Hints:
Elements: E1 7-8, H1 10-13, H2 20-30, E2 36-38, E3 41-45, H3 46-54, H4 72-91, H5 98-126, H6 132-155
Antiparallel strand pairs: 1-3, 2-3
Helix pairs in contact: 5-6
Amino acid sequence: xxxxxxFWNTTELEQFGKHRSTIRKxxxxxxxxxxxxxxxxxxxxxxxxxxxxxxxxxxxSDAPDLMGFKTAAELRAYVQSEREKLILxxxxxxxxxxxxxxxxxxxxxxSVKGFKDKVITRIESAIPTATPxxxxxxxxxLNFDLKAVADELERV
Length: 156
């Protein structure tokens, strides 16, 4: 056997902080077979098995992502409490539905666009010497500013 120092039995592999029976179970689950035998004692290549023995044990649960909670029950309790909090906020008027929010934003955007049309007309009548090109330039600038306002409102 060359590289005998790399071949460890399960007792030597306990240095990874696990009991021999747990080591055998982990290696069997990973599909790792002994590379040699010393008498009846199986020997494993420490370089090959180290990744399987250094992994943190994973608890199987009914939820694939527990968002930092230790158990699925804790996650469910958190989600339920958040639902109840939202219901209370709606009932007390501290929150609005997405539909109401979108309607309010639409009203704001429509009001701002209406203002643009009115301001062009008012400037046109207040400054009779304004040329059509000046009014078009003003409208272009207002459209640019209104788009920025609309974009900002949509981000809110």
